[in-house]
Amino acid sequence: MFNRKISFLLVLSFCFLLGMATKAEVGSVGKGNGEGVVDFDLTGEWTQKEIEYFQKKEYVGDKERYTPYSIDFFPPYLKGKIKEELEKYGIIGENGLKEIIREGKVSKLELLRYYNLLRDEIYARKGFVFRNSYLKEFFGMVNWYKPTSKEIALTGREERNLKVIEELEEIVKNTKVVSGLFSKQVIIKAKWGEGPGEFALEPLPESYEYRTSFTIDADGNVYIVDPNNQRINVFSKEGIFAKSIPIPEQLIYTYKDEKTSLVEGIGIDKNGSVYLPSSSTSALLTSGGSGEVVFKIDAKGKVLDSLTFKGYYVSPAIFYESDNAMYLWGDWEGGIVAGMPLEFGGKERVIQINFKQLRDNSFDRYKKSLNLGSRKIKINYDGTPVVFSESRNSKVVFYDGRNFVFQDSDGEIKTKINNRSLRPPKTLWFTYKEYKGVSVSAWPYIDSNLNIYCLDGTSTHLQVVKYTPTEEIWK
């Protein structure tokens, strides 16, 4: 019995000493020498900014307060530049850190080096003797480092600080850099104006938003709605202006003595017919009625047919062709996300739809699938996809209004990228007539090759940007 107690105490003592040593080793991260393992190279020249920061940094022992996911965790010598980026997006904290990494505003290696040094500083301040030659070299250049012991004890606050730093390191390691996942190309630049191929920039008065829509046909031609000039501008895939298609007069109304149109989407089928939806037609506005009207027009703007979904509207209005039929897809009034087949068959046909019709072609959140006629697309996501496309190898990209989600054929999400990471903020800080801070708003388009197209704007022109994903995005 006595020997058992001695054995137990010896084991307990050994575990305690091992724990003390382990605490020291956790803080000392580098390559080799048994001082922890990292998955990147910590070697290389120390920057003068790194040395100066840790040389001059004030430290108040275990009372120093590290704020989790704070701006304070960015390298102070980069804080000005990074803070500008965060203020531009209006975000800070964990999401802010992910955003600047995704956009390549600061390198992952730079941040990981900083977090390693920030963590090892806790040990260096206590006089820990590093075995790692790189850490010896770095802290040997700061006058406050006095190595005295290979065994140190950490306070509870210091342990929590280390935990926070480790969490930040995981965020950095697990965030994909967008610049390495896409190639970016501006394919169309069209001036603001009223001439051929130009766009009249007249924002909605209540929101200062320039709202439009665009689509791309099977040949790569781009159709962009120009609401204030009451037309559709068509560009070739090379970005050359080809022609304009007039918007039907039924979609044009007068606001403050100026003509405009509110077209809430655009689609084009394989025969070249164009589809324009709106819940703000001249007839609806005059009668005070409600509903979604879809006009089918030819390449010259002549109305071929129209459908009115009485009492219901859909937002956003997205078109998708399947089973030789065109579907109007989106979030219908009543909270059902569905694609409705457009069966015209007669001039100015009025349809009283019911919820069962919508459910037959709806997005099933539980089974996570999209139903379009006889086709079913598996979507492994709990949100509501509103723009989507599927490639020949069953890879899927969809956009839910905030994120572009890339998934493979078995439904596994490979990459999820916030829309903000692909394009600059929508707000354009310039003055147009009496307006300031105009924003350009349009839903993106995804083709069958899974390229993403976004509308963007500057103070001089409206542009279409094409993002081509690399194979890295599927890994």
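(ticket continues) Second input and output from the same batch:
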Amino acid sequence: MNLFDYYPEISECYPEYITQKQMYEICGVCKTTVYMAERSGAVPYEKEVCRLIHTHRIKLLDALAFKYNREYGYRQDDEYISYLRRFYIKRLKRFPDVLTVKDISEITGFVKQSVQRWIGRSYLKAFVKQRSFHVPKESLIDFLVSPTYNAIQDKSGKQVMTLQEFCSWYSARIGGVKI
């Protein structure tokens, strides 16, 4: 797969080598995440020293690979993910096809500011209608099964409860018992 073709708008706007700041803008992550990715070796970089200024040069291709792995680093066709997707589709059936920030806050157990941050970081695809964000249900389900959502350190009580429900639902399915 050619990542320059996959992310054409990014590859047109940035040079072959980028800075740490440009990388966290591209990937939608914080400075610490970029720093830790460099330290762990996930993102190779070159040190550039110009008198007293030290910078890191990162290949744009490496930054795009990091972004792709964060977004799609798991297999969509994985059995566990497909069961998780089915679980959320069934669980969210009573909600409309387009959700508000308040709905998502109720579903996930996170405060509205967290939901708005997810929208700002492009984890959730949203559109503005009557001065408020609206999110398609499919976009929310994509986010709920993503590694980004499941890797949240400070999980809400609702998220923990939902994941426990899923584990029992999944084990019952795998054991041959249909719920």
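Agent notes: The beta strands are 17-18, 46-50, 53-59, 98-100, 127-129, 132-136. The chain has two domains: 3-72, 79-174. Closing as not reproducible unless the customer responds.
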